[in-house]
Amino acid sequence: MQTLTPPAPTTSPASSRLGLVTTVLAVACGLTVANLYYAQPLLDLISGSLHVSQGVATTVVTLTQIGYALGLIFVLPLGDLFEIRRMTTRMLIGTAVALGLAAGSPVFGVFLAASVLVGITSVIAQILVPLAAHLAPPDQRGRIVGKVMSGLITGILLARTAASLIAAAWGWRTIYAISAVLMLVLAVVLHRTLPQYHARAGGTYRQLLGSIAHLAREEPALRRRALCQASMFGAFSAFWTVITYELIDDHHLSQTGIGIFALVGAAGAAAAPIGGRLGDRGLGRAGSGVALALAAASMLLAALGHRNLILLAAGAVLLDLAVQCHGSMSQHEIYALRDDARARINTVYMGTTFVGGAIASACAGALDTAYGFAGAAAFAAALPVLGLGVWATSLRGYRTATALKNM
């Protein structure tokens, strides 16, 4: 396979300018990734409006995540080939078109197709996170990536609240129309704010895709982090896919109540910069094990205490804290592997993560239908346990390698 050339030397923005760029990147990541999650609290409304069953309506979540995974695999690597500012602003126009189609969908099939397109184009968020890693000074990389990730996670968590409250006031289609306008505004802001950056990986698109498999083979830390985060995001996706039905059917919450419940989970966004700081201090490996164990415990709490709304909310907060902290520590480690291949590294990492999320969402929908929320939550609890097994295996290998090195 042809070796791709390293990036041309670049400089980071001045510290004052870097603060502004970091804030803009955090907001941009939050607004774009939110598009993936608007449907989750609206499934009951969508199923009624478009005349499908609740079980069929959950496929919206799965197909949106599949679309996102396709974008991660086939679009994200272009971040190592094209100039980032121009690429992202043009993609945002495509996102706006897809959201407009979702807002005006006359039948469920059209809405599904629009959801896949929304998923593919919303991969912009994962193009911008590696850009933050590039712009940050090495000793601040964990903190700055953590700040951008906190914006991304806030977007994920507040998307459900915004969708619920806006749907309660103006109908479920409105959130998609509003977001379409926001994407166009964001395109203008990014064009005026972001510095030009070209990774200059070299080679053709085909060679670029081929190098992704090579990276996965050659970087065991990347494989480990991707699998562990897939287990975490699988638990996250499973929980948030089925929680709406639990809140409506068993706790009799209104659409506004669902929005408030989702807002509680936004506390998890605070863990993203904490995880980045732990990574900067060399504590990411141990912290990851703690985060995996906490995620499993949070879903056991939700499964056993789902009749109590307070326990259910506590499970949601702990899960979000664990997932976001683990994600920041993971990205701190993987972005240090190869400066010239951060977009492709993110392809492996986030592609694996969202494939895991899509599979977990589909399984959770089926388990919720067959066994109720407790069955789906128990499944969600099992996923981080699998990730903990991967972490423990890699930890043993790390200790063995360290012992041999010190002999």
Structural account:
The chain has 16 helices and no strands. It has helices at 15-34, 43-49, 54-57, 59-74, 84-103, 108-121, 124-135, 141-170, 174-193, 205-218, 220-249, 255-264, 271-280, 284-304, 309-334, 342-406. Helix 1 packs parallel to helix 8.
End-to-end CA span: 36 Å
Task: Bin the helical content.
Answer: over 70%
Largest sheet: none
CATH architecture call: Up-down Bundle
- Count of individual beta strands: 0
List keywords for this structure.
mainly alpha; 78% helix; disordered N terminus; single chain; 16 helices; 407 residues; Growth Hormone, Chain: A; globular; disordered C terminus
Map the helices and strands.
Layout: H1 15-34, H2 43-49, H3 54-57, H4 59-74, H5 84-103, H6 108-121, H7 124-135, H8 141-170, H9 174-193, H10 205-218, H11 220-249, H12 255-264, H13 271-280, H14 284-304, H15 309-334, H16 342-406
Short description:
The chain has 407 residues and is an all-alpha fold.
